UniProtKB/TrEMBL annotation:
Residues annotated as domain VWFA: 616-792
Entry-linked PROSITE patterns: VWFA (PS50234)
Bias kind Acidic residues: ranges: 255-273, 283-293, 319-335, 374-388, 404-416
Coiled coil: none
Compositionally biased intervals (Low complexity): 336-353, 497-507
InterPro entries, sorted: VWF_A (IPR002035), vWFA_dom_sf (IPR036465)
Organism field: Halohasta litorea
Protein name stated in the entry: VWA domain-containing protein
Compositionally biased spans, kind Polar residues: 299-313, 455-464
Pfam families named in the record: VWA_2 (PF13519)
Length: 795
């Protein structure tokens, strides 16, 4: 599992790491080339995609965009990670297919969206295994995604379906205040579309409260085996939500549509048959309720909702218990040593035979449960596919406690590694946003636990039972009011955003310092046509037509290999070195002696161990016409493409070891400063990787400017040219190499030559360079860059 921030998703999504999934996904907006590049850059089975688009400041308590973006992205990542850890996506598919008629599966998925979101976020916000920061971030994303009263038009009408989803969302996740206004007869902004919608909602209101109560009590953190119970608790919640549909909602719709036929409509329910036998979609089952036909309540939804992934669109990741082996009311059914259910047995008619009534959640009979098990033949470990120990389920899963941990050691959350699983199921749109729970919208509820239940915490996975008369501990309820967050709650995100921004932008102070040093050096001795830094063409804008599709991740991967070689060489280098630019010392540095002429004392040298060397690298890139593809039409890859990739990869490798790199090129006879030392290579990627070519080969002028840059730095410098070594003036090049205080090396690009036969000019210059290596085939580039990496330890 890898997390990637991308602007190709509106909020967040979990998808298989395949180009097809990225292109075809409802939440993703990738072109085929973008999808292929992303898949090639990752080493994972699944991707957690988090939006890189700006967080909506108008909906949150922050006015700092960077801080809002940081908290928003972390909140979305936590939410998706919670789903991966805690939601049984495979069971969701099988249970809805078995127990919900096809015409209404999409609506039931909407219900499960809300109940699962509410449950997993409530655990993160109230559980001991998560920090307050995770709760703040979850609240923030739901503040941003929840539609509030002032975001609705005047005289807005709710269908029964819209009102039901909004009420469940307000009571389980985030209280938008809309439901209260809808039920307020004096309010004129929100009304029901029809009297039938209003009547149906009034009748179902208490059942919505009971569903919210039961869902919050079905937690996976009630025992020490947290991961072992995560998806078992999810299966119980899914079953409870489907039971709400079959036993509370569907009969209500049938009753509102046809009061005369209510008794006949529920015959199969009373017989205890599974819902799949009532309305499994095979054509022989009872007719599904009419949604709004004949004047009844309508389940049609018109709410815009957020764009997060629907639970039926997630891939199945990791192992899950067999849904038939998890009873909705049995908190430890997946944690028994012999795989049997110690508290619940079901006869062939679907009725329950137990020694007490604690397994019947909310005091209701499990009429929608499958009727496969009996008291004599309960599921075994093999049948339930449930691990014997928590470790079998948690293998590869990290705790979220450390995700996003700051340097100061505060608790945070961490994205887990997860096992691979199945494919995605049918898709459905998501109409109702998910948001953190709030005390304002959720009722105060209590759970009933079996008095003799062994080894359980005070917080039970088991939903409350109405028949229980004993006192029960409270179910953890939502902890945030919408107005409870303030800017101060996101101080860690503010610090992190500032650090990220510093890494993602050019250090203007360092750039100014570099340019001043170059200007000082030019003032002393000049560099060909350059007498001052104002004469330089710095970070030139390339022609967009010459900028290829940049697969930066591949370049970074290759640079990492070169960087490994470079790091090894530097570790092995035990030579002594000298630190230059000091104001005192026993040796005068010839490179900086000119400073004494205008009162700058930084001319001395200090000896220090080799592993403390401080390097500076100047790369020269040849863009002359001879580097263009027209010179060797039979070649698979142009010389300029090989050279630009070599420059980018070597510069990245050096920067990974804190070695500053400057890049010079020449194009149409002009020498340019493509990348000053203070500018990170990635920020100059278009300038470096542009394939534009033209003009002669003023290599001598480029070497003169490279010498100036090297002399402007007190660090140990090395100059490397990447050229086909066909300069306009060989003698001038040789003179510049001889005049350089720093070693001058060459990577000769000779992909248009036979191996062992470099250009004639290159053979002449071979005796002038300190070191040379030649690329005859583009596939040799990486190995030749390794050779260049070893040069830094030689000098």
């Amino acid at each position: 599992m890898e997390v990637r921030v991308t602007e190709n998703v509106a909020t967040a999504a979990v998808v298989p790491a395949s180009a097809e999934a990225l292109v075809d996904g409802e939440q993703t907006e990738f072109s085929p080339s973008e999808a292929s590049n992303l898949v090639e850059s990752v080493n994972a089975d699944y991707l957690v995609l988090v939006t890189g688009r700006a967080a909506p400041l108008e909906s949150v308590c922050l006015n700092d965009q960077l801080t809002a973006d940081s908290a928003y992205q972390f909140g979305l990542t936590i939410h998706e990670t919670l789903h991966i850890l805690k939601t049984a996506f495979g069971a969701l598919q099988s249970l809805t297919e078995d127990r919900v008629e096809p015409a209404h599966r999409e609506f039931v998925h909407e219900l499960i969206n809300i109940t699962e979101d509410g449950a997993i976020e409530n655990e993160a916000m109230t559980g001991d295994d998560f920090s307050q920061r995770s709760a703040n971030r979850l609240t923030l994303i739901n503040e941003a995604l929840t539609q509030k009263p002032d975001e609705y038009p005047e005289d807005h009408e709710f269908s029964f379906g819209d009102a039901l989803l909004k009420a469940l969302h307000d009571r389980l996740i985030y209280d938008s205040g809309v439901t209260d206004l809808l039920l307020d007869e004096t309010d004129t902004q929100f009304t029901f579309a029809t009297d039938a919608d209003r009547k149906a909602f009034t009748e179902i209101d208490a059942a919505i409260d009971q569903l919210a109560t039961d869902i919050l009590s079905l937690r996976s953190d009630a025992t020490v085996a947290i991961h072992h119970h995560d998806k078992a608790a999810s299966i119980k919640r899914i079953k409870r939500t489907i039971r709400f549909w079959n036993e509370d909602l569907k009969p209500l719709l049938a009753d509102q549509d046809d009061p005369e036929g209510d008794a006949d409509a529920n015959d199969s329910d009373e017989a205890g048959e599974p819902e799949s036998q009532q309305s499994g979609g095979d054509g022989d089952t009872e007719t599904a309720p009419e949604d709004g036909s004949d004047g009844g309540p309508s389940l049609e939804t018109t709410e815009s909702g957020d764009s997060r992934q629907s639970v039926d669109q997630y891939p199945t990741i990791g192992d899950e218990p067999d849904p038939d082996g998890v009873d909705e009311g049995d908190e430890d059914s997946t944690d028994t040593s012999d795989g049997t259910d110690a508290t619940d047995t079901t006869d062939d008619t679907g009725t329950t035979d137990t020694s007490d009534d604690t397994d019947d959640p909310a005091g209701e009979s499990p009429a929608s449960e499958p009727a496969e098990t009996t008291g004599e033949d309960t599921p075994t470990d093999d049948e339930t596919d449930t691990p014997d120990t928590p470790e079998q389920t948690t293998s590869g899963q990290a705790s979220l406690t450390d995700f996003g941990q700051d340097d100061d050691g505060d608790d945070g959350e961490t994205t887990p590694d997860t096992d691979t699983g199945g494919d995605t199921g049918p898709t459905a749109s998501r109409d109702e946003p998910a948001a953190p729970d709030t005390a304002a919208g959720a009722p105060e509820v209590e759970t009933a636990q079996e008095a003799t239940a062994p080894d359980t915490d005070t917080t039970s996975n088991q939903p409350p039972t109405e028949e229980e008369g004993q006192d029960s501990p409270e179910v953890p309820s939502p902890v945030h009011e919408p107005e409870s967050l303030s800017s101060a709650d996101f101080e860690s995100d503010r610090q992190q955003a500032a650090e990220t921004a510093a890494d993602a932008t050019v250090d203007e102070t360092a750039l100014e310092r570099d340019l001043e040093a170059i200007d000082d050096q030019l003032a002393v001795e000049g560099a060909g046509q350059f007498a001052a830094v104002e004469d330089l063409d710095i970070l030139p804008e390339p022609d967009p037509r010459d900028v290829p599709d940049i697969d930066w991740a591949t370049i970074e991967g290759s640079a990492a290999l070169v960087g490994g070689t470079l790091a090894k060489e530097l570790r092995l280098d035990q030579q002594t070195n000298h630190r230059d630019g000091l104001s005192s010392g026993s040796t005068i540095n010839v490179k900086t002696a000119y400073r004494l002429g205008y009162g700058d004392p930084r001319t001395f040298t200090e000896t220090l161990p080799g592993d403390e060397k401080d390097y500076f690298l100047v790369l020269i890139l040849d863009r002359s016409a001879s580097m263009g593809p027209s010179y060797y039409d039979d070649e698979a890859e142009s010389k300029i493409s090989v050279a630009t990739n070599g420059v980018a990869r070597f510069a990245l490798a050096c920067e990974s070891l804190d070695i500053d790199v400057a890049i010079i090129d020449f194009y149409r006879d002009d020498v340019r400063l493509v990348k000053p030392p203070a500018v990170e290579t990635e920020f100059a990627s278009e300038q470096i990787l542009s394939t534009e070519t033209g003009g002669k080969t003023p290599l001598a002028e480029a070497l003169s400017l490279a010498r100036t840059l090297a002399d402007s730095s007190p660090r140990e410098s090395l100059i490397i040219s990447m050229t086909d070594d066909k300069p306009s003036d060989i003698d001038a090049v040789a003179s510049e190499i001889a005049a350089s205080y720093d070693p001058v090396c060459s990577l000769t690009i000779a992909t248009d030559c036979k191996p062992g036969h470099p250009p004639e000019q290159a053979e002449t210059l071979l005796r002038e360079y300190d070191q040379t290596t030649t690329v005859y085939d583009p596939s040799q580039l990486e190995s030749r860059l390794d050779e260049l990496a070893s040069l830094l330890s030689v000098y």
